Fold this protein.
Amino acid sequence: MDYRRTYVRDLFKLAPRTQTSAYGWVKTRRDSKGISFVQLSDGSCFKDLQVVVNEGVLSADVLRQITTGACVRFDGEIVESPAAGQAVELLATGAEIYGAADPEKYPLQKKGATMEFLREISHLRVRGNTFGAVFRVRAQAAFAIHKFFYDRGFHYIHTPIITASDCEGAGAMFAVSTALESAGHENPAYQLKTKDPAEDFFGKPAFLTVSGQLEGETMALGLTNIYTFGPTFRAENSSTSRHLAEFWMVEPEMAFCDLEGNMNCAEEFLKEVIGHILENSAADLEFFNQRIEPELLKTLNHVVESPFERLTYTEAIKMLEGSGETFEYPVFWGADLQSEHERWLTEVKVGRPVILTDYPKEIKAFYMRENEDGKTVRAMDVLAPRIGEIIGGSQREERLDVLERKIQEFGLPLEPYWWYLDLRRYGSAPHAGFGLGFERLLMYVTGMKNIRDVIPYHRTPGNAEF
Ligand code: 4AD
Ligand code: MG
């Protein structure tokens, strides 16, 4: 058995009468007048292969084990299919059962299973139509992202997952420590070995990173254009359909770039990545359009073709105040925008993605470049219909004195940021960047309603199963 065998997706291209084998998992089996029709999938494409098994071809013992969930290799001949919707099928001449699946117990056969139920069997759901499509699109999107940056001379950088500095200054971080000692097998309680961070593994408090941005900036001020693409962690206790405790983020950072250039990059990036997926994952998107989100293809094509709206935060607040809507959270200059406000702006007011800029400095991170007005910063958020914030970014504060003041104004200690401040001491440059929440993008392109359903195994408050 070699890995370079034929995928199901390649079998559809074979000429009739070609002898071949098909490997996969049985989705369904239907018997009619002594013939069995088996739908076989190996996840290589949306379409299943139909395998026709005539009476007497397989032994009774093998035939008995061909049930939903079983893993089987069929040997046979490609034939033209009389059935609608497929050009060819496989006429079986033999089969080997690799792994049977007890039809009484196999958890994935329930018709019309809810997303919540499927989440409980996340290790098996990938074998079904919806999640096969989700994870093929996820892989395609990751490739499109790397391609976008590769084509523009950006260098792919790996920033640390364990860090001692809080990038967003929001304090929602997971501690990393070996100061915990298991009290033993019998008693699952854990005891603190030490309360002094100096005695802990890293000799100081350490955390899972919330963003690779700060280290990304150091690399950009040497390599000019870089990006990171990796897991990030937030210990916010929010169980919404758009938040994960572990999510993947794409963070480009560009030297000699201001907010304008940053917006241009973000817009071009989203359009090209979505365009690539439309082109290369057409069958999967067609499924999402039919079964998950009826307007999906229309909106995605619209996004690729039309320019994003660009507004300042102050303009957006005026629009929201004049909207005549009653929002749950009040709107006033200085307020952080809630999902309901973001959705009104993108869905009702504009009908396309919106880039909001120049937010009040108090509601954004310390590293954003302060405007001349002393009140706002060169921030930008890209808001998308259905999702709200999909990208957050800014031009960075490159002036040493202003940055030092800002860190202190945010109540953060200067010491852990000595190396970040060094960038402003030695050869500082105007620079900018942004972060795309990879799972938010996937929700947008698949139409899936819950962020837990676009990552193989979700990490959320109360859940670290699998
Ligand atoms: O806006 P955020 O917090 O920005 C940063 O972390 C910056 N350091 C990025 C940068 O400028 N390099 O997060 C960026 C994006 C958000 O727009 C959102 O799409 C996603 O990350 N995000 C989350 N996705 C899933 N679950 C969460 N808890 C998320 N928090 C943020
Ligand atoms: Mg943000």
